[in-house]
Amino acid sequence: MNLRKSIGVLLQAGLQAAQDTGALPAFEVPADIPVEPGRHAAHGDYGSPVCLGLARVLHQAPIRIAQAVAEHVPAAPFVARVEAVAPGFVNFTLDPAWVAAQVPDILATGERWGSVSEGEGQRVQVEFVSANPTGPMTVHATRNAVIGDVLARVIEAAGYEVQREYYVNDAGSKVRHFGGSILSRYAQLFGADIPFPEQGYPGAYVTEMAQQAADAFGDRYLAMDQAEAVRELGRWGIDQILKGVEEDLALLGIRFDNWFSERSLYESGLFGEMMARLAAGGHIMQRDGATWFMHPDLDKDAVLVRSPQVIDNPEDRPTYLASDIPYLWNKLVVRGFDKAIYVWGADHHGDVPRVKAAAKAVGLDPERIVIILYQMVTLLRGGEEVRMSKSSGEFVTLRDLLAEVGPDPIRFMMLARTVDVTLEFDLDLAVEQSDRNPVFYVKYAHTRIAGVLRHAEEQGWDPESVGDAALLTHPSELDLIRKMLSLPEVITLASTNMAPHHLTSYATELASLFHVFYRDCRIVSNEPGEADLTRARLMLARTAKSVLARVLHLMGMTAPERM
């Protein structure tokens, strides 16, 4: 049950009833009514500012409208009190007995708790990571990976059918430069001199790959036509990189349903079909030897295919946009996804309007395209930034980060901020075993509950027994239950707004409320007359453990029994 949505429905009914009785003049009831969690206990559990916005429509004071609505909100078993509060809020307080009574249902739902049906089975594709396959997974690409993976998880929990895809940029000049870089280092191993490409890849990993090629193939590429050797080594190198990327991502708990080749868009003829479609719609222009895309939504034209006077190799002339258009058509038309979600670095912000305009130009609804832009990651050690340089080929890889801090801290801390702000990843904090470390704090709550349940069993209690939820009346107990009840809202919010950071906030708050409950309420008591209360509190602890595990799993993290 999504309480915010349910309260929104009550408000709509209250607004309509107030009109029907003449307490308010006739007007169109809003289809979408804002409802927010209460910020202070004295103001209720939920509140709505809808009457503030209606003041202009009804020409009445907001508090007067709120009073009329509050008086006409229909009764509901989960609501204890509805109040109008200045300057015009309608606040709702949940019924404590109803709140406590939800514990057995939450517990019985288990790992499905929090799931909602917003998606109604729509098919959605999430394409993420998709880093150029010319080097290992870096820290920056790791943030992309975690954002995309957790979005896919939370969107599934919201009732969508999700496919995870990695788009392999295996066409164009980068592949050729990569192959040329390997060939140059490979030739040196045999005493030959092949110039290193000007736009080559200088990292030590390229030298290692050259040695692997020499070990596997001997000197066969030295006897081959150089252009052909560059092409073959480029494709071989991409295969090796992708194997490493897949292995690294698996260590982080990330998998893909499909790996899609950019090159296939050209080999299948789909690129040509899209160019013809654009031309038929009047969106293609030839200028300065290049092919340009035109659309009224764009401030300036965009190059699709560069001029042969600028780039000799025909395979290198198409731009990223030239591939994006048939790729989008493949997603939404050929494979029939209802929505295509992309996770891109913020440096691609200029590409967003071009892709949206291209979708319109070929007859697709741009509303079916969601592009999430995330900012980069800054690594800190000892309070100082860890310097990384792309030009020198020096960077911190995902494998390095996994070896130093492990997968769970990576996942949690990569999600801990909104995607639109630069993330500072504190390496020291990530491994610190204290409450300062949010990863430790949340996971410790789960292990603490596991410890409580083990202790109870040692004391002769059955931790799996079902207690009487009506005995859960302490404020700390009710606060914990209210937080567990809000998980469906969090999943709806995170999936609707494409904002996975809500999960880390929720997990921290839930852990904190359990720790308060643990402090305030003696869970296991052998005192006379407290057996029923002990059973009820063990049931509550087990429920909190289940919900914490659910949130940790949504973030792709483990829920340990011991730490």
How would you concisely characterize the structure shown here?
The chain has 563 residues and is an alpha/beta fold. The protein contains 21 helices and 15 strands.
Written overview of the protein:
Helices cover 49% and strands 13% of the residues. It has 563 residues and is α/β, with parallel strands linked by helices. The chain folds into four domains: 91 residues, Gyrase A, domain 2; 140 residues, Isoleucyl-tRNA Synthetase, Domain 1, CATH 1.10.730; 165 residues, HUPs (Rossmann fold), CATH 3.40.50; 79 residues, no CATH class. The protein is flat. The mean pLDDT is 94.
Residue windows where pLDDT falls under 50 for at least 5 positions: none
CATH topology of the largest domain: Rossmann fold
Measured by DSSP, the beta-strand proportion falls in 5-15%
Overall tally of domains:
4
| CA distance, first residue to last residue | 33 Å
Q: What would you call the structural class?
A: alpha/beta
Average pLDDT reading: 94
Any guess at the CATH architecture of the largest domain? Answer: 3-Layer(aba) Sandwich
Helix content: 40-55%
Distinct helical segment count: 21
Shape: flat
Instruction: Report the CATH C-level class of the largest domain.
Output: Alpha Beta
